[in-house]
Design brief:
- The structure is a homotetramer.
- By secondary structure, chain A is of the alpha/beta class.
- Chain A folds into 2 domains: about 10-255, Aspartate Aminotransferase, domain 2 (3-Layer(aba) Sandwich), CATH 3.40.640.10; about 255-345, Alpha-Beta Complex (Aspartate Aminotransferase, domain 1), CATH 3.90.1150.
- Helices cover about 40% and strands about 15% of the residues of chain A.
- Chain A has 13 helices and 11 strands.
- Chain A has helices at about 15-20, 35-45, 60-70, 85-90, 95-100, 115-125, 150-165, 175-185, 220-230, 240-250, 255-275, 295-305, 335-345; strands spanning about 55, 75-80, 100-105, 135-140, 170-175, 200, 210-215, 280, 290-295, 310, 325-330.
- In chain A, the strands form 2 sheets. A 7-stranded mixed sheet of chain A has the order 1-7-6-5-4-2-3, with helices on both faces.
- In chain A, helix 8 links the parallel strand 5 and strand 6 (about 200).
- The radius of gyration of chain A is 21 Å and the shape is globular.
- The first copy, chain A, starts with 12 loop residues before the first helix and ends with a helix.
- Chains in contact: A-B, A-C, A-D, B-C, B-D, C-D.
Chain lengths: ~350, ~350, ~350, ~350
C-alpha cells in the first residue's frame, strides 16, 4: 500500500532491458548517440512537429528551469499557479537558472490557473515600466499538483491570454502522459496546437529511471538551450543511457500504457473513497493524484496497517476526529489488490 | 580501435545487474533509499572518514561546480591549471554555479600546477583589497587533462601552499581511480590526508553509466551542498538508480579493477608509441590518457583503418609530413587486440 | 502643486554647500576620505551603536539589495509585505543581488505586515526540507509604501516572530526619518533596539541628492557587504561627495527638520482631505504619503489647475463620477501655499 | 604633490555650479528631467550618432558591467587585456552582472592588446562547441591601464578582427577624453567609426563628481540596458544631478580642456623623468598615467618630501638601490609647480 509518490515506484522492466541493449560497444557521447537520433525523430513524429528541437535531461527541475531560462529574461515575471512545482518544490531552481526571474502567482481551483485570474495578474504587472519586472512567460502544469487536469480547451484559454500579451507558454508536463490519457488528447493537441512553446515531457514519474524530454517547438531557441544545459551540468557524457530509456518509453506506446494503468488505479481509489464515510476530496481528482481529508482515526488506522502516503498534519495528535488532509499517488505499477486493501482499512 | 574518450565506453555489466536488482518495489526517493545508506558507509570506510558527507550526482560538471560553489564565494578566485576541465570543458559551469567566481589560471607541465607558480599566482591576487577578487579555493585535477598524475606528495605540496593562505582545496577526481592505481596511493592518502577538503570521486568515465560521488570531509558544509544540489536540478527523485551504480562500483573493488585495466591498456599503447618512429609524446602519460604528435600521413593511415581518436588539426591538410597532435584515451574495456591493431597501423 | 514623489524635490541648499566645501584639494578615494570617518562616528553615536558598520551608496535599491544579499542566501525566502518597494518597484533587484532568493509576500493593512500573517507565512515555508526555499530574512519597510508607519512596538512584534525562527531582520528605511518623526522614536529604538539587524537609512527622498546609508549592527557582516558593494559597482571613487551629503544631513538635525516639514505638510493635506466631500482615504496616512479616492471630475479639475500627483486609472475616462485612486507625496519643501491651492481646487 | 590617482582630485568648480543651477524646484525623476534631454542630444551631436542611446550612471564599474551584460551572454568569453580594469580592479563585477561570463585575457605591450594575440586568443576559443564558453565580445580600454593610448587605426585593427568573428566591441573609456586629446581623434572616429558598439564615456576621473555616460550606438539594445540598470540599483531617482554634471562637462568643451590639462601636466612629468638619472619608464606613457622604476632611495626621498603616488613594492626595504616601480597619475588640476617640486626631489 504505497501511495507516497510516483517517484517511489520502480522503472518498467522494458526500460532496464533497453539499457542493457544500449550498453554494447563504444558510442558517441554527449548526445551524439544514434539512439538519440531515433528518439528525436520519434518525438517529432509523435507531436507532428518535424522542426522541433528535442533534448533529454535527467530531472524535472532541470527540464523546467532550463526551459524557463531559455524563454525568459532575468527581469521577467513567470506567471504560474500558486501550487506549481516550480514555485513550491524546486528550492528556487527557476530563480537560479533564470538569473533571478520572479514567479508571480495565479490562483484557481484544482491547481489550475483561472483564466480571469491569469489575465488580471498579467495586467497588474506593468509592462514597459522600468521599475517593475516585465511580463515574461506563462507556465502551465498538467497534470496539476492538486491532481486536476487541464483539457485542451482550458490550455488554449490560457495560452490565448498569453498570446494577447505576446508571451510564450511553458508546460510542466511531468505527468504529461497522465494528462493525455485523462483527456484523450493527442500530444500535438495538448502542446503546440494549443499554444505551448516548450514542453517538459516527463518520463521519470511514469516508469523511467530518470529522463525527461524537453520539446522546443521553435528551433531558433535550440542552441541557447544546449549551452544552458551544458553549463548547468545537465548534458550527460554517456547520453546513450538517457536515450535508451526514452526510446523504450515511446516504443509500442509503453508510455501511454503506463499512464493508463496509473490513472485507472487512481480511478479505483477515487471510486472507493467516494463511497467511504467521513472522507472527502480536497480537489477534483482527474488523473493519478488524489487529495482527501479524513478524521485522524482513519489515518491512524491506515498507518497501523502499513499504508504509506503523505499525511498533512500531525498523525499523533490528540483528537481522533480532527480532519486531516492526505495526498495519495498511483503509479504505473499500483495494483488493484493494494488499492482494495487500502480501501478496506480506510473503511475500517 | 576506439580511443576517443572513456566517455564513449559502455558501463560494466555488473552495473546493469545492480540496476536490475535495485528495480524492485517501492523505495524512498530523493536519496532516502537504503542503498544510499550503504554507499555512504562504504565511502566513509574506504576513505577512513567516518564523518564525511557523501552525495551522488550524475555528471562531473555538476559535481565540480556544486563543490566549488559550496566552498567559495561569488567574489573569489578559483586557482586551477590552465588546462583544467573546469576552465576548458564546462561552458562556464563554475562561473554559473558560484555566481561569478573567477578562474585564475596556473601553469605547469603535464597539466599539473607547478607549486612555485601556484604560490606566485595566489600572491598576485591581492587579498583584503576590495578592488580585486579574493583568494578563494585551489582546484586540483587528478588525473590531469594532459594525462599526468599528481603523486600524494605533489598534492600535499599544493595543498600546503593553499593552507599557507587558509584556502580550501577541491579535487576534480573524474579519473580518481586511475590516479590511485597509477600511484598506489589509498583513497584517504590522496584526499583528506593530503589536504583535500572536497573530492569529486568519478565513476562515469570509469565504467558507470553516469554517477559521480562528492565527498565532503567537513560535514558542516553538507546542508549547503544539499540545497545547492536540489536548486540546480541535480537531486534525483529515483535516486536508488544512482546509489545502485555506485554500490556496484565499490563492491569487491570493481572500481579499481576497471581503472587498472584502463591504465594497463594505456601502458601497452604508451610502450608501442615509445618505440614507433616519427611519433612523440606531448606530455608524460601516467594514467589512461596519451597525447602524441605524429605526421599527418600517419593520422591519415590510422583514420583510413578506422581508428577513432581526437586529432588536433586538419586531417585533410596538404602536407603529409606536418606534425599534428592527438589524444588517445583508454578505458576499462579497451582490449589488447585493439591496441595492437592500432599500433600496427601506426607503424605502417 | 507638485505631489508626484519626494524624489522630484530638490536637495536642501545646505547639501549643495557641503559639496562645495568638500570639493577642495586631493582626498582619499573609495571611502578613505576623512569626511566619511566623521559620518561613521556620527551615525554610531546617533544610533548608540559604537560597533556598527556604516556604508554609503547612492540609491535605495542598491542599499536594500546589497543588505539583503549580505544577510540571506540564494535559496532563502525574503518575507515582506505584498506592496514592499523591494517587491514592486525594483525590477527584481533583490533577486539579482541575492542570486535568486524568493520574495514571499505577507499581507496586512496600510502596507504593514500583520504579525499573525507573518507568522503563518513563515510557518508555511517548510524549513529543513530541501525541496523548498528556506526561511531567510524578514524585511520591514518604514514608512510603508501605503503611507503607514510602524511604531516601535509594532516592529518589535514582527522581529520577535523573526527571532522565534532565528531570522535576521532588514528595514527599508527610505523614509526612516519620516517614520521617526511620526512616532517620536529614537534611531536606536526604531532599529537595533527593536530587533533590526541591518537598516537602510534613507537620505535621497528626504532632501539629499542621492545618498543612503546602510547601517549594519553586527560588524561581522561588514567585509562581505564591502565586497558586494564594490562588485556591484556601488563603491564611489570620489566617495567624498557622498560623505559630504550625509554629513550635512546629520548636522544640527537637518534630516529630522526636513522630515518634520514633510510630515507637517502632509498633515495639512490630510486635514483638508478629511474635510472634503467625495474624497476618502485608501489607507491611514501616518507620514508624508497620502492615498485617496475621489471622483474623476475632481481629478480632472485638479489636473486642469496644474496639480501633479499620481492618478491610478484613466483620467480621460467617460464617467465623471467614477471613483479613482491617487497618491500624493509631500517633501521637505512642500509649501502650505501649494497645499492650500490644491485643496482649493479639490473642493472646487 | 599628489599623483595617487585622478580619482583623488576634486570636481571642476563649473560642475558644482551646474548642480546648484539644477537644484531648483521640482523635476521629473529617474531620467525624465529636461537636462537629460539636452545631454542626450549633445552627446548624439558630438558623436554624429543621431540614433545613439545615451545613459548616465555614477561609476565606471557600473558603466562597464552593464554594457558588457547587455552585449554578451552568460556563457560568453569577454576578450580583454590582461591588465584591463574589468579584469583587475572591479572585484569580479563583470562576472556578476553578466551572470558568469568568462574574461579571456590577451597580452600586448603598454596595456594594449596586440592584434595577433587577440586573433589567436579568439581562435583558441572553440565557437560552436558546447563544452566551451562561446566567443562573446571584445573589450578595449582607452587610455589603457598602463598609460598607453590606442590610435584610431589601432582600435580599428582590433575591431576588424572582432568583426571577422562577428563579435561586438566595447570600449572602457574611463579616460576617453585623455585618449582623444592624445591622438587628436574625434569622438566619432574613436568610437563607432572605428567599430565600437558601446562606449563607456568617462567623466569621474576627468573632473566630475561621479558620472559616466554609456553610449550605445545600436538603439535596439537600449531597453535591455535600461532594465539592467534599474535592476542593478543604478538608476538614480534624482537623476537631474547626474544630468547636470554631464551637461556642464560637455559645455564649451570643458571635458576636453580638462583632459588637455591632465595630459599636458603628465607631459611635463614625462619630460622631467626622461632626463632624470636612474629612472626609467615601465611602459610608454601616452596620456596622463606614468609608470616608472627608480631606486628605493629616490622613492624614500620623495615620500619624505610628501609626494603621494603608488609605490609598487616595500618602501621600507633594506637595499637603497633596489629598483621599485611606481604609478603616477595627473589630473585636470595638477599644477606645474607641483610637478616641478616633484622632479626637484626626484633629482635629489
Amino acid at each position: 500500500m504505497f501511495f507516497a509518490s510516483d517517484n517511489t515506484s520502480p522503472a518498467h522492466p522494458k526500460v532496464l532491458e533497453a539499457l542493457g541493449k544500449a550498453n554494447v560497444g563504444y558510442m558517441g557521447s554527449y548526445g551524439a548517440d544514434p539512439i538519440m537520433d531515433d528518439v528525436r525523430q520519434t518525438v517529432r513524429d509523435l507531436f507532428k512537429a518535424p522542426e522541433a528541437a528535442v533534448y533529454l535531461v535527467a530531472t524535472g527541475s532541470a527540464a523546467n528551469s532550463l526551459s524557463l531560462a531559455t524563454f525568459c529574461n532575468p527581469w521577467d515575471a513567470v506567471f504560474c499557479h500558486r501550487s506549481a512545482h516550480i514555485e513550491v518544490d524546486e528550492c528556487g531552481a527557476p530563480e537560479f537558472f533564470t538569473g533571478g526571474a520572479k514567479l508571480v502567482l495565479v490562483d484557481g481551483p484544482d491547481g489550475k490557473m483561472a483564466p480571469a485570474r491569469l489575465r488580471e495578474t498579467i495586467k497588474a504587472t506593468p509592462q514597459g515600466n522600468v521599475h517593475s519586472v516585465q511580463r515574461g512567460i506563462v507556465s502551465i502544469t498538467n497534470v496539476t499538483e492538486a491532481g486536476g487536469v487541464y483539457s485542451v480547451a482550458e490550455i488554449a484559454a490560457l495560452t490565448g491570454i498569453a498570446s494577447d500579451y505576446d508571451l510564450p507558454c511553458h508546460m510542466d508536463g511531468a505527468r504529461f502522459a497522465n494528462a493525455l490519457v485523462a483527456t484523450n488528447a493527442s500530444p500535438a493537441e495538448m502542446s503546440w496546437q494549443s499554444g505551448i512553446d516548450v514542453l517538459c515531457f516527463g518520463g521519470t514519474k511514469n516508469g523511467l529511471m530518470g529522463v525527461e524530454a524537453v520539446v522546443i517547438f521553435d528551433p531558433a531557441k535550440a542552441w541557447e538551450f544546449e549551452l544552458r544545459r551544458k553549463r548547468a551540468g545537465h548534458l550527460f557524457s554517456k547520453h546513450r543511457f538517457l536515450s535508451a530509456q526514452f526510446q523504450a518509453y515511446l516504443q509500442d506506446g509503453l508510455w501511454l500504457e503506463m499512464a493508463k494503468a496509473a490513472n485507472r488505479a487512481a480511478g479505483r481509489l477515487i471510486d472507493g473513497i467516494g463511497q467511504a464515510s467521513d472522507v472527502s476530496f480536497m480537489y477534483t481528482p482527474q488523473a493519478n493524484i488524489v487529495y482527501a481529508t479524513m478524521p485522524r482515526r482513519i489515518h491512524q488506522r491506515l498507518a497501523k496497517a502499513g499504508a504509506i502516503y503523505e499525511v498533512i498534519g500531525d498523525l499523533g495528535g490528540a483528537d481522533p476526529s480532527e480532519l486531516m488532509g492526505s495526498r495519495m499517488v498511483c503509479s504505473w505499477c499500483t495494483t488493484d489488490a493494494d488499492i482494495d486493501r487500502f480501501l478496506g482499512h480506510l473503511n475500517g
